[in-house]
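Appendix B, record 7
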Amino acid sequence: MAVVLFVGFAVALDGFTAPANLLNIVRSVSVLGILAAGMGIVVIGRGIDLSMVSIMVVTVAIQLQLLQAGWSLWSASALVAAITIGLGAMNGFMVAYAGVSALFATLASSAFVFGFVRSQILSQDVIYIPETAETLLWLGKARILGLPLDVVVFLAVVAVALVLLRWSRPGRFLYLMGDNFQAARTMGIPVRPLIVASFVASALLAWLAGMASAVSLQSMNTRLVNSALLYDVVLVVVIGGIGLSGGKGGMRNVVVGALLIGILLNGMTILNLPNIHQNLIKALILLGAIILDGQLNPRDEQTSQQGDI
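Structure tokens (predicted):
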């Protein structure tokens, strides 16, 4: 589908295949791809994380506000890393030990975390990188082999996640757990700690995606929580081919899904389609992808009983 879209837009739209536009396509999906990598890890383990955008926004906004207050980059990063791990562990604990559906646990934590931080900690909607944070300002302009930092981070995340999922013991356990939860438990796989670890990984990748976005834009806009970004993340995962029933797919699917969405969004932008029409088209694609996924990867009886996807 990505190839068909690319060829179609290349033939129909002037300037679509220009090097600058192709780089824009990759760059536009970098942050989305990092978030989708985290979501993909959770979905492979038969869960879902709807708190990713909230975690991304609040952790980076807190870090930038600490920098504005005079904290050093390393001390602020250490504190925010601890907060991020705590938020991911909280989600994982609710799912693994309290037996709460991942859908509702992460939806509730998303609303609570953003509401608490925005009302009690943050003083404004947009938090800018202070001029004293010279390292972050430099990273925003840095190029590695001609590529912006956010693109390099996306490629690095995909490579590391690919290796860990395919060739590490926890990665193989995650696939086994997602494919058959009860069998994995019977085999002695520590399924509950594994669930917690997958949500912690998702939260850390959300923070990383937020930092990649912040150094690129020199700020973090907390209103992103109310955007359609979370739906785009789910769209990338589903349309890329990671089965919502768990145990299937990988980082290759994240790359394919991210590129497909990037090409689609870029083409619709060049066609000057209104946002409401773009969202309608994305919603129809997501609906079709979910229905197709349900037919190709039907939920088993255990998953239906748990209702965790």
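Remarks on this record: Strands lie at 126-128, 143-144, 147-148, 219-221. The longest strand covers residues 126-128.
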